Amino acid sequence: MANDAKRSGKRFIVLLAVALSLTVLSCVVGYLSLPYPIVLVADTQSEMRQLDAAMQAFKAMYGVYPPSKIKLCSNCKDYGAEPLDQASIMALSRLWPNIGMFQDIAWAGDGPPVQGEILEGDQCLVFFLGGIPDSAAKEPACLGFARNGKNPAQLGDARVGPFFGFDSDRLVKLRGSRFWSYLDRYSTSQPYAYFSAGNKKNGYNRFCTSDCSALGVWPYAKSLDPQPDYFNPNTFQLISAGPDGKFGPGTALPDGKTWTPQTADQIDPAGRDDLSNFYPMPMGKRTAE
Q1: Assigned domain for 182 exists
Q2: Which of 1, 86, 148, 167 is exposed most, by the fewest CB atoms within 10 A?
């Protein structure tokens, strides 16, 4: 009797294991059998949620979201009086209050000093969430920032970050830059576009141009009258160009086309397959009224 019970118990466990294995296998097969674009839409949306979580972790550490446009100089004295120069100094001082009149900071890792390189949104996304580029690594990588508040680029010190684990295969240097951009899950030629509201409600486009001008896309606004009212007005926008590798134009200032879920089917054709962190579907797919 006891032996029969043991054998029955073992058979039950085996059958349960087989059932679980078949369930898992069917889920995997079902996922792999989905049309390729649908799989990539889900993967891209998942990655954008992870990037969103990384942004929240960055803000928890530094008290602000990263800027989406900044000018980097190795020496503080090289900044001028232009609005971007002054905003960059303020952003760096807010992130690292003890940085002071800094000198010889290797923002790009090893190599020559950084002499006034302007990072746009796609580069700011990687720089602030990943940290200093690892110029010595065999594969593209980021090193986070040093805890040394006077020199965040110091190597070998205790680190803060990276806040996000960037896939080295999709870290690229565009436009002759020494700083990384991050290709989206479609691995086309397009990186994620990043726009910050500047830690101010509807504070996008503070320099009167797009923070991703090289990508040809602006952040999306619901309306422009009497003042621009943006999606994610207090935080940031992330946009993927989708499988066609072409960004929709966004809402260009001063009189660009606005976008809402109810008018999504009227978006520029290039933007129909774009994905964002403020809309759960491709941006050319209209929601029900």
Answers
A1: yes
A2: 1
